[in-house]
Amino acid sequence: MNEPWARISSTAFDVTIWLYLAAMVLSFAYLAVRREVLWKSARAVAIAGAGANLLSIVARGIAADRVPWGNMFEYSTVLAFLVVVGTLVLIEGVAGIKTLTGFTVMFAVLTLAVASMAFPTEPSPLQPALNSYWIKIHVVAAIVGSSLFAIGGITTILFLVKDRSERRALAVLREREPAPIMGGAVEIDAPHDLLPDPEEPADATPKAARGGVLPSAAALDRVAYRVIAFAFPIWTFAVIAGAIWAQEAWGRYWGWDPKETWSFVTWTIFAGYLHARSTAGWKGRRAAVIAVIGFVSLLITYYAVNLWIVGLHSYKLG
Amino acid sequence: MTTTSAPTIRRSVALVWRSLRSMRTALILLLILAAAAVIGSLLPQLPNSPERVARYLDDHALWGSFFSNAGFFDVYGSWWFVLITTLLFVSLAACLFPRTRALLRTIRQRPVQARELDGFPHHLELHVAAAPERAIADVERLLRRRRFRVAREGTAVAGEKGSLREVGSLLFHWAFFLLLVGVILGKGTGFTGRAVVTEGDTFVDARLNYAGQLRTGRYFPGGFTGVGMELLDFDDSYRRNGQPIDFVSRVRFLDQGGRPVGTEEIRVNHPASIEGLRIFQEGFGWAPVVEATLSGERLWTSPIQMTRDVPPPGVPDTAMPWRGAIKLTTPEPDVMVTLELWPDFRAFANLQLTGTPTPMLVSFDPLIRYSVFTGTIEDTSLANTETSGMRLVTRGDLRAAGRSSADVPGVGELDLSFPALRQYSVLLVSRDVGIPVVLVAAILVLVGLLPALYVSRRKVWVRAEPDDGGARLEIGGFALQRKDAFGDEFDRLVRDLGGQDAVVAEPPERVTAR
Questions:
Q1: Which of B235, B355, B418, B510 is the most buried (most CB within 10 A)?
Q2: For B48-61, how does the pLDDT look when each residue is reduced to its tens digit (9 = 90+)?
Q3: Residues of B with CB below 8 A from A277's CB?
Q4: How would CATH label the architecture of B111-162+456-504?
């Protein structure tokens, strides 16, 4: 173990938490007052935080002289980094939505805080079971998939919140202005999940009902779907790579170890979500609820299995 | 009204089949399967940890018996888990057959012409200089170059693209059947066994040698290879903080005639293969060689494979002593010697002096503390160190290369010596011919998944009519997925169709994506 690098890593870790906290506050401030300068500074601080996060990860790898994702603490550090970078690139960049950053950065802060409280570990070498090149393949895929599922899960929760407020606003609108007996009511009566396609734009919801600080429910739904559809094959690959590794290390590709079981459960639930999106009557809220359950299952896969359930994957202490 | 039973049965079969065919049924079955899997992760499972199941049954008598009857301690082997899986696959097949047929039909059929083009989400008209015949031929060529499947009728063209989505989706789903075949084939005809072998000894792959540590598949043909594995030595290494570095068994393989055929180092993450067997490093332990002589007659001289107690909370398992027994059934009454091994004497001394458990990572001046019992031995297995019903005669200590004697009243003088301390290695031996099938299935799952998620189906129609010396092209199209991305594709297509000299005949009336 290399002392100076270990110190750099842990200092960078602390700096990361503070920068993420600042980025989160600035993002929420932007949500509240909608001043462009707030968004820009939130973004800049988040990027700086991601830089510190990356430094912490790299320094950790140098200090321990191995890949810096060999135990739960390190895994969490990488997860937080990928969630923030994923938000900056996919949500702000590709989807062009500026108002979700505060929520995902909050998730990153919580991940780091839990990591430093629940599993603080000094950099140390890998245990024999982890000492394989599959750690580069399986674990990286699992973290990338987790970070995207997390972003998708958070977006879905916000979708449900927004969808609820849009429905309420619609109800108010309808009361105020009784719909004509035929025809005219269709538009107002048609929330997005009754439209022919999940990716359909939100134009069906009148502007008056949209309002609020978040993007329209339909936009949130669309982004959540895209991110989860991106994550799903990566997660599938992570499970398969894990099975190949398990075959090499433990002599069987699948043994219903708790981690295996829960990664399968998470996979199943998100598969259910993707199917529900194309099943009549399951679109919108019902599909979203499945995605939120999937997100919870992901958190169980991630935390509970390592902390409380005894199994082969209990790498809590390295 | 009277109804005969035959139509009723037929109707209910049809009803069941129809509900199995719906994706919703498959979806619900999938989620039920996930819920069942959760039960298996929350309760200890017999195949993984029988000792924890036993503890659970002790602690929760009422719930334990209920769970036990319901098969909750072997969820993944229970009849209802198999039933859910079977129903899921039947339902999946019921969903996939019609879809596969439809896909084959679509691929064989030519794209169908549309009657009205102005009803499509994307629609516009433009003027080109070429005559209709010529213009539509250009359109056809362009669409083909863009990998559309094209059908032409007169001066109208219909194009379709993206059936790869459905191909991928069906591949993804059918691959699970291949996966199932691989699993059933491999687990059904294969076996997993534990070879427990002490340094210097040889384990031969044969049914009896696995001594209760063997699990065979339902269709296991019964043959073992007879290959020998001689454990040359076992090495466990640790860092100073007690963290293990590696566990290595150096094994010399012997063919059926006992001739050496090669030496391999089997370590964690580095299994060895021989004659269709895969051999994995799974565990290890200490095996002290102990000789027992009773009144001058040597009754026992073998290594004893010892096991370690489960440590109390907060104590590393490397700090626990190892236990074993010698059972002598020739004297009257029977004599049993229980042994407690401390591989590192310093840990024993430290525990006596300070009360602190110390990990024992190497052997250092090993100590065996023994107790001699007389009585009747019911179970001759050495793994069972239960001494209830027997009488404790004496205790003593035995140091490495030392000897100790004790007087056993009514039996004679018992001499014990401890000439050597060896290690034993636990090797997992398995045969699974399904692995390549499972691997291929997994790859197909992934290969199918990508187009199933990311390819979108889109359709385009173009019609040309004579117009003012050139032709008027009417273009319509839509996408079934990724509709906003299709807007750009449609615009590009129109631009390329029109060439340089195109004039948009009417302002485009596209429904914009945002």
A1: B418
A2: 777 788 888 888 88
A3: none
A4: 2-Layer Sandwich (3.30)
